[in-house]
Amino acid sequence: MKYISTRGNAPELTFEEVLLTGLAADGGLYVPKEVPTFSAEEIASWRDLPYTELAHKVLYPFVEGCVDSAALKTMLDEVYSGFGHKAVAPLQQIDHNEYVLELFQGPTLAFKDFALQLLGRLLDYVLERRHEKVVIMGATSGDTGSAAIEGTKACRNVDIFILHPHGKVSDVQRRQMTTVVGDNIHNIAIEGNFDDAQDMVKASFGDQSFLRGERKLVAVNSINWARIMAQIVYYFYSALNLGAPERAVAYSVPTGNFGDIFAGYMAKKMGLPIEQLIIATNSNDVLHRFMSKNQYEVRPLKHTITPSMDIAVSSNFERLLFDLYDHDGPALAELMARMNAKQDIVTLDEDKLAKARELFDSQAVDENETIATMQQVYDETGYLLDPHTAVGVKAARDCRRNQQIPMITLGTAHPVKFEEAVKRAGFDVPALPHHLADLMEREEKLDVLPAELATVQGFIAEKTFHD
Ligand SMILES: *Cc1c(COP(=O)(O)O)cnc(C)c1O
């Protein structure tokens, strides 16, 4: 499988190269040159497969030529046997024909484990073969950092540095990062806000000369194709469990960077009968405003009770636009320049918008509606949703087109991670799952650094100088 840039002016890469690259050289994102497709008969023949075997069927075409089939199988077995539920991605029914897909059974209790656990293994596998080592650098306000740390803690060829804003991450989320021990793991608390941390990461990717030796930075945010890829599997798994491919299914996806929902769109392109895909956003609703009004306008970030969806710009949307533009890289490069010039309101040609609306519905859900949905579902079923999942359920109920088709909301996190919202909804915070029961007693390891690029880069260079 070869990968191409959405802006049409960067070299084609293999899976291995894409895995080790962040943005393409032309500023675009990498996508598969041809999407593998499966017939209904083939998909039907996978109905009885457990999660890891299904994952192998779905993922192997994307990595073929770079990752050996047996090695992929071993990695998948290792990753998903570490999840806290034997079904890996169990379905929870919340009403007639309505479900939550529980994607929070992994080590850090959010769906990001599905991809980042696998990413860590894939990185180590290719780096071992290349006799190379890399540095992961990322900024987080929560879920990504802990999932990336858990995913790479056993990697022999990866040092990981995760920056978070000092004092501005919840205790559970911080401890999920700072209590993981390993010589290759470094938590940096920046004396500043999330944007300061993010800016330092961006600047470091732009000029990597501060790194010693042959080291390079690797991105673990969802611009990395391997993350999207791993997330395609649970769409197949849940749809097959509900009668696909004979029966169609629908999904509502709590969305920030458009990564998780893009994986659903990929599953549909690969042959899964997905009748409806709903983009569910919080009040950071750039995508919903765009879909409903054909106005793409970047607005300042709002902090909400669903922090993992707090984004101003939705980076993976470019991957969809690439399809809407029939893979015309130069035209897309021009469009992206206008979209990123934040003063502008950008509109799409009507035919392209019509195509987008055929593929997706959208809804923005505010904090009061989120809280009310948590309460409503609890009253109806006794099941407590995390606030992000509640955004998805609300959008699912408002936008549903066909009651006969099973509606599945992606359950993106466990409610225990989002204490503020749970309390606001009037519930007690649930107990931590068994494997994290002593999280609040574990020893923490972190370094507090000023929000100065040179200091942070000097720290990283020094700590990676052990090879
Ligand atoms: C990351 C995250 C999201 C948003 O996912 P995207 O792929 O960025 O759209 C939603 N909910 C939770 C709990 C998350 O951690």
TrEMBL record:
Domain Threonine synthase N-terminal: 2-80
Key word Amino-acid biosynthesis present: yes
Superkingdom, taxonomy of origin: Bacteria
Cofactor field: pyridoxal 5'-phosphate
Biochemical pathway: Amino-acid biosynthesis; L-threonine biosynthesis; L-threonine from L-aspartate: step 5/5
GO molecular function, one term: threonine synthase activity
EC number: 4.2.3.1
Family recorded in the similarity comment: Belongs to the threonine synthase family.
Protein name from the UniProt record: Threonine synthase
Species name: Bacterioplanoides pacificum
Organism phylogeny: Bacteria, Pseudomonadati, Pseudomonadota, Gammaproteobacteria, Oceanospirillales
Protein encoded by which gene: thrC
